[in-house]
Amino acid sequence: MKRKYMPLILMLLAGAITAIITFIKQYTMIQRLSALLAVLLIFYVLGSIFKWLLDTFEKQNEKAALDDGEVIEKEAVAAGEEEAKETEETKEE
After folding, report:
1. Chain centroid to CA 29: how far?
2. Which of 16, 41, 44, 68 is the most buried (most CB within 10 A)?
């Protein structure tokens, strides 16, 4: 899943909402720009943290899946060796 643009989209969405609300409540231009700047910075940081958390969780899940896959493969190889030994024993009899 692509998460590269998640912080930017979150920041711009929050900025659009802030711009609309400050326009409706008739803030002065300095108040509008100050609020917009603060919201953009805060939501960019929050989006970046959220993206980092999701990437970390995905890496942990991939690592766990790979570890489980290796265990399954090792068990399958061990079971295959046991079957081969049993087949050899039955052929010898």
Report:
1. 38
2. 44
Q: Rg (Cα) of the chain, in Å, rounded? A: 28
One-letter amino acid of 19 = A
Q: What is Dmax (Cα atoms) for the chain?
A: 96
Burial class (CB in 10 A: 0-12, 13-18, 19+), 53: exposed
Contact 48, 7 (CB under 8 A): yes
pTM (2 d.p.): 0.65
- The first and second tokens of residue 26, run together, are 């008739």
Q: How far does CA 40 lie from the centroid of its chain?
A: 22
Secondary structure (3-state) at 41? helix
Q: What is the reported pLDDT for 45? A: 95
Rounded to whole angstroms, the Cα distance separating 25 from 17 reads 12
At residue 2, φ and ψ (nearest 5 deg) are -80, 125
